[in-house]
């Protein structure tokens, strides 16, 4: 969805109906909240939880990210500005330190276009820094209430920006407080999945209808006005994504089509494709046509279509030879058998998980 949106929608002469990449970003945050939240809930009792958690996250995420940042920053510094599309450049250390979101707020720019999507990784890293300790040390009886409070606070934060003039719109987009409710939806789903008292069969119809209802509400909010949409639509889309994700986890009929080999391939390679798809598109248009990407001419359409298999090839190669070996190494950091010091857990509080 992000690749299609960036390649065919979010361009000067793009197809406006394909500008749906923002929905995929919201899905990413919800899915991340679910997977990481579930991992924390299931592994927090291990004595070396924090060391293993951060080691595995580091080797899974950082090497492909750093490689992309360094290579793209070097290209942007030497290639013609007419097609690198980088009128505002952030220092490379801001990307390496995951603080490019703050530069986006102060400059009201995404910086170098080829590195624009990396703000989502910065939000993700800030989530990784805060969530493990917050979940591990929060009193279990207050966990759900605390999560809901954080989600409500995120909506209030956006409302203060769009209705109260707290700051720029970029604060709501690129900083963790403005996106936290999406991640919270995912964590709440993880808490729900581990709750053995929920009789999911009684809620299946509601879960399957919720994605449709929430997307319709988001569309209505768009028609009413941009501020209302920006404040409340993320929460609506996040709820819909969460319900849909639970449908897949619980094995509803629509889950079967997600066993498609094509979707599984894209899912396996998604991280590296996400990191590199814009630089590859920019390089193709620049080297062949001498301009930044657009769809105003047949030649530009042909170059964009020709970029798609190259994008997949680069994503596959980075995944196969960089991400997968380092992820495998990260998994050599084993969970300790000894428990983490703290209150004893109930015997049924931990379920096995493959991560």
The overall pLDDT, averaged over residues, is 93
Major beta-sheet overview: none
Broad shape: globular
Uncertain parts: 344-355
Distance between the termini: 25 Å
How many β-strand runs?
0
Cα-based radius of gyration, to the nearest Å: 21 Å
Share in helix = 55-70%
Class of secondary structure makeup: mainly alpha
Overall structural domain count: 1
Total helix count?
Answer: 14
What are the secondary-structure elements, in order, as H or E?
HHHHHHHHHHHHHH
Task: Write up what this structure looks like.
The chain is mainly alpha-helical. It has one domain. Helices cover 70% and strands 0% of the residues. It contains 14 helices and no strands. It has helices at 2-9, 21-43, 49-78, 81-84, 92-96, 100-107, 119-137, 143-162, 169-174, 176-193, 204-224, 226-249, 261-289, 298-330. Helix 2 (21-43) crosses helix 10, helix 7 (119-137) packs across helix 10 and helix 10 (176-193) runs parallel beside helix 12. It is globular and about 60 Å long. It starts with a helix and ends in a 25-residue tail after the last helix. 33% of the residues are buried. Mean pLDDT is 93; it is low at 344-355.
Structure at a glance:
This protein has 355 residues and is mainly α. It has one domain (6-330). The chain has helices at 2-9, 21-43, 49-78, 81-84, 92-96, 100-107, 119-137, 143-162, 169-174, 176-193, 204-224, 226-249, 261-289, 298-330.
